[in-house]
Specification:
This protein is of the alpha/beta class and 327 residues long. It has 10 helices and 11 strands. The strands form 2 sheets. The protein has a 9-stranded mixed beta sheet with strand order 1-6-5-4-3-2-9-10-11. Strands 7-8 form a two-stranded antiparallel ribbon. Strand 4, helix 5 and strand 5 form a beta-alpha-beta unit.
Length: 327
């Protein structure tokens, strides 16, 4: 059945307290503490010594339909040229992941609204056929969601759909409300999916996305200074592939300002272990974010809980015997 979970951190006392401290006179102390905790998690991830990304984000189309002020690529501010990932490239990526028996996290989105790509259910089905053990999922703003689309995605083998329900009154937006009503009405036991609805404020200060968030630029709010000596776990765990086939620095490089390789001309494994990636990891470990482009103005300090739980459980994200040798 469809397991529906609605979360609203905005009304939780701890969340409200953290927000007040983060914006108050002790903000520097607050970020110093967060930086220390974040570095502990980063050190844990680094010790895993992943030879292949365990989290992949595949941006099949680089477009969004929402105007969130914290996002560098919202529909009003997006400077990117529209691109759609070719089916040939999608096939190449899927076959490479199949070769290593990838069973990590595969997000069929990145800095975009995935439902804009009308091929999404077909893409999901193809990746599922190649990767039976991968956790395949999307995040959507819910503006285009409906019951028919959801059932097609379930049939295609998606494991999880997360809806970021953006509304400053913290009400369900109309498409999401209608979807939940239909799920309740249908009670279809044959459908198997985890559906999470996160109640989000649209006009909110979040992490600054490497200094490019329109409502929290590096020039206006300098929380990132508290993380100058911090590392980051993303280059050790995550790969983001843009529609062009180029690989971004991480999910916070929303504009694709840094390119680490091109999946057209190299394999995922080759890019992951190339000198560019290796140098970034080394710099973050030894000199902190201040040594790296984009990283030096980034205040991201959140950790992916799903990944942490998998590692603790001893999960194998890929078959290492199918990988080459890299120095």
């Amino acid at each position: 059945m469809i397991n529906v979970r609605i979360t609203d951190n905005n009304n939780k006392l701890v969340h409200q307290l953290f927000k007040k401290i983060e914006r108050g006179p002790f903000r520097r102390n607050f970020h110093a503490i967060k930086s220390t905790i974040f570095d502990l998690f980063c050190a844990y991830y680094v010790r895993q010594n992943f030879r292949f990304p365990v989290m992949l984000e595949i941006e099949t189309i680089n477009r969004c339909n929402n105007d969130c002020p914290f996002c560098p690529v919202n529909v009003r501010d997006d400077p990117r040229k529209k691109q759609l990932m070719s089916e040939a490239l999608l096939e190449k990526i899927a076959l490479e992941l199949e070769k290593v028996q990838f069973s990590g996290f595969l997000a069929l989105y990145s800095n975009n609204e995935p439902l804009i790509d009308q091929r999404l259910s077909d893409i999901s089905a193809y990746f599922r056929s190649k990767l039976p053990k991968a956790h395949i999922y999307i995040y959507t703003n819910g503006k285009m969601i409906n019951y028919a689309i959801l059932t097609r995605l379930i049939a295609a083998g998606l494991d999880q759909v997360v809806i970021d329900n953006y509304d400053d009154s913290l009400n369900l937006i109309a498409p999401v409300r209608k979807l939940l009503e239909e799920i309740e009405k249908e009670q279809n036991q044959a459908l198997n999916l985890d559906l999470t609805v996160i109640m989000r404020l649209k006009n909110e200060l979040l992490a600054n996305r490497a200094g490019n968030a329109p409502n929290k630029t590096a020039e206006n709010i300098q929380d990132y200074l508290g993380y100058a000596n911090s590392g980051c776990y993303l280059p050790f765990t995550q790969m983001v592939i843009r529609p062009s086939g180029q690989v971004s620095k991480c999910c916070n490089d929303a504009l694709g300002q840094v390119t680490l390789g091109d999946v057209h001309s190299a394999t995922i494994e080759e890019i992951w272990n190339n000198p560019i990636y290796t140098d970034i990891r080394h710099n973050l470990l030894t000199r902190g974010r201040k040594s790296e482009t984009l990283c030096r103005t980034c205040d991201v300090s959140s950790v992916t809980g799903m990944l942490f739980k998998k590692i603790l459980a001893g999960h194998q994200f890929y078959n290492s015997s199918n990988l080459g040798r890299h120095t």
